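Handoff note, outgoing to incoming analyst
You'll be picking up this chain. Sequence as last confirmed:
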Amino acid sequence: MTARTPEGGRQSEGADVSRPARVLAVCTGGGVGDLLAATPAMSALARMFGSPVTVLTSPYAVPLLRGHPAVADVMSDDSATPIRETIEAVRMREFTHAVVFWSTSRVAAIVQRARIPIRVGQSRRLYSWRYTLRVPVRTESGDTASRWSDVQMDYARALGAVAEPSDFTISIPIAAADEREADAVLSAAGVTGRFVVFHSVRGMRLDGVRWPVESFAKIGDALGSAFEAQVVLTGTTAERPVIQEIASRMIAPHANIAGATSLRALAAVLKRSALVVALDSGPMHIAAAVGVPTVGIFALKTDLPRRWRPLGPRVALVEPSYPCPGCRKETCRTFDCYAALTPEAVVSAARSLF
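Most recent structure output, in case you need it:
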């Protein structure tokens, strides 16, 4: 069987199409948002082939896929694991198809050297020859309007999958153990009654950065006042010191639970909140997915809110407005765009959801 893509790739002519399909979906790079954006394509693939897929992802993200209806099993890999070990673990599963959503030379080598017959991955890379179906990423050709979840769906479409609207509903099932952990964390932090979550970080290194803690403290106070609720501040363990700086400047009742939860317990905490306001980040996508009213703050000119708008039933955005030349989050040390955010703009976006 030979199927050509726009880049001239081919399915492996040695593929045994008579045996049941066993699909490996690979997303080991990026962050939580990238992984969740790939799950609609996983749902389309599971429906097309008639069985859930296996996912290869980063160790930190494994729990997030637990219980997903399109996912049968989750494997993990990180750059510290000898590549031969991951190749052998994948090869033993005898997958018929690999769909690589976040392409790197490492994962391209893994799926090719594991002898998976049909391999779908990104075109126009030096290692793209390892894929039998090579898919152009339209965002590399100037597309800034398509949602990333639809761009990721192109990999499933390359195999003939047809997306349905329901595929784009992100699923994060919350288990009883997640609820119990959320109970313990909130109780230890003194959170009782109605609360809103403010996620004022975005998974970046903050050493040497003048993070606008004063501006974020004012936004936190405004949210607490506007919604008559305690403000719960979230982040990772590494981000806890800067979150504490924000907390120390706040007047409204608040609690800092940065680093106190697992990823799934964080989802349970977010689901209980009356509102989540978050910078463009993984928790923003998780909050929208579990159905809580979510305000996503896209302050940088390079944030591309149309591409990264979270998928959820009640979402509002604060879009870039600060006129910063040469905007690049990787090299910025002042983040004046965040400092320029007004509490009124954030509260107004939040009120629009009610």
